[in-house]
Amino acid sequence: MTTIYALSSGAPPAALAVVRISGMSAGPALRALAGRLPVPRRAGLVTLRDPADGEALDQALVLWFPGPASATGEDLAELHLHGGRAVVARVLSALAGIDGLLPAGPGDFTRRAFENGRIDLAEAEGLSDLLFAETELQRRSALAVAGGALSAQVSQWQDRLLMISAQVEALLDFSDEDDVTGPEEGRLQNDAVALSREIDDWLMRPSGERLRDGVRVALAGPPNAGKSTLLNALAGREAAIVSPRAGTTRDVIEVPLALAGRPFVLIDMAGLHEGTGDEIEAVGIERARQVVAESDIILWLGDEATDPAFDSARTIRVHARADLPGREIGVDDAVAVSAMEGSGLSTLVDALIARADAMLPRPGEIALNQRQRDLLRECRSALGSAFSTDLLLLAESLRLARMALDRLTGRAGTEQMLDALFGRFCIGK
Which residues bind GTP (predicted)? Predict the structure, then answer.
């Protein structure tokens, strides 16, 4: 396998820049630059020189991690440089001139860690989510998965499945032997049922997609109801154009933001009404209704009770523009809000957070992504077929359940899926 190198820290200029080198030629490359290999896992201050002409490149801290006890599972070197553009560019140019070294692509270091058994696929997915985390809730959930919490749970299920499978095989192959005294078939089926119920509990947890993408909140109502003004007030910036002219908003505007550490996507849209015959306006209204149908929460800013097409369980009624004359008193179950004065906004945010907390995982709780959920469902389905009194069918069902869990952690998988995952990572990770 080739030796790869890349800048693994943020783009320069910066106080420091970290360049990583991983592969069988990492040691010779480090020796060529630094003149020696430092004590493993202990930082050493050296002057880096270009192997081509001996020119000094930078005074840097270098670290040496012999494989397999490294982040990638192979020989790994790190160069901690001054973070100027010229310094980084010159060091990368020197590395490019060393035989056997190639620039890394997106996710190459993490992929090598996976291929060399340093992390499994679930941990890699958690690391990917951690890199993209923007809220505290996302960070804590991703950190739990990247740290192996999900993998540890799957490993426990795998051990239990193997134990049940071994006992079934013993009954099948050696039931006529006097020294084989396995548990009765009923007990094996009970063990499978208990495991199936545990997996059911995990499948009932909130999905990772909602945590990753945010709770979708549609601001809906008739034209000039104050939707754009409210969106700007909640976002804390001018994200949408505000005008007294009806029909200003025609397209869908999405604004991601965090409220109390929870991820949300606020969606402004065209006002909902019967239409005026304008073709473009009609398209905007149709898009708005589609967004409302797909949203997790609806903020209804209309004075009437609600749109008859809405799901009332998803709707929070908002009495907007409560500062205007004649609008001081709203409907009993509506949250009175003045986006201009700021009154009522904290009450509305509290209501949004309360709704979101019922849809999102608890802090630090593992949230399964769609791939993981699909494989757990496959495992659960196989266990559901394990209630046959036929030992051969029971053994086959347990084998299929084990295969699903193997694919969850990456013991079995497809190259295409791996390419898609690691391609999300940045170069140098």
Answer: 224-229, 243-249
Residue 425 CB-density burial (10 A; 0-12 exposed, 13-18 middle, 19+ buried)? buried
Asked if residue 224 belongs to a known ligand binding site, the reply is yes
Model's pTM, two decimal places?
A: 0.79
Predicted pLDDT of residue 334? 86
Q: Are 401 and 382 in contact (CB under 8 A)?
A: yes
* 113 known ligand binder: no
Q: Is 245 annotated as a binding residue?
A: yes
More confident residue, 55 or 398: 55
Residues 129, 49: one domain? no
Query: Which CATH number does the domain housing residue 257 bear?
Result: 3.40.50.300
- What's the gap between Cα 313 and its chain centre? 28
Given this model, what pLDDT does residue 117 score? Answer: 92
pLDDT in tens, 201-238: 999 999 888 998 999 999 998 888 888 889 988 988 77
> According to the model, what pLDDT value does residue 100 have?
93
Same domain, 269 and 399: no
**313 among the known binding-site residues?**
no
Q: What is the pLDDT of residue 31?
A: 96
Q: Is residue 426 part of a domain?
A: no
Parallel/antiparallel/unpaired status of strands 14-22 and 76-83: antiparallel
Does 228 show up as a binding residue in the annotation?
Answer: yes
Residue 54 pLDDT > 50, yes or no? yes
* 397 known ligand binder: no
Domain that holds residue 382: 124-205+367-410
Across 66-195, the runs of DSSP E, i.e. the strands, are 76-83, 101-103
Asked if residue 261 belongs to a known ligand binding site, the reply is: no
Query: Do 252 and 137 sit in the same domain of this protein?
Result: no
- 415 located within any domain: no
49 annotated to a ligand binding site: no
Instruction: Please indicate if the annotation marks 415 as binding a ligand.
Output: no
Residue 418 located in a structural domain:
no
110 is in an annotated binding site: no
Structure confidence at residue 248 (pLDDT): 46
Q: Is 244 annotated as a binding residue?
A: yes
- Residue 396, annotated ligand binder? no
218 and 349 inside one domain: yes
**Whole-number pLDDT of residue 384:** 81
Which 3 state secondary structure label does DSSP give 278? Answer: coil
Tell me, what CATH number does 87's domain have? 3.30.1360.120
- Per the annotation, does 295 bind a ligand? no
Neighbours of 184 (CB within 10 A): 9
429 domain residue, yes or no:
no
Do 241 and 323 sit in the same domain of this protein? Answer: yes
Judge if 189 and 139 occupy the same domain: yes
Domain check: are 38 and 7 in the same one?
A: yes
- 366-420: pLDDT as tens digits: 989 999 999 999 999 998 876 666 778 888 888 899 999 999 998 765 555 556 5
Query: What distance in Å separates the CA atoms of residue 2 and residue 26, rounded to the nearest whole number?
Result: 10
Q: Provide the CA 84 distance to its chain's centre, in angstroms.
A: 32
Domain count, the chain: 3
- Ligand-binding annotation for 276, yes or no, is no
| Residue 105 assigned ligand-binding role | no
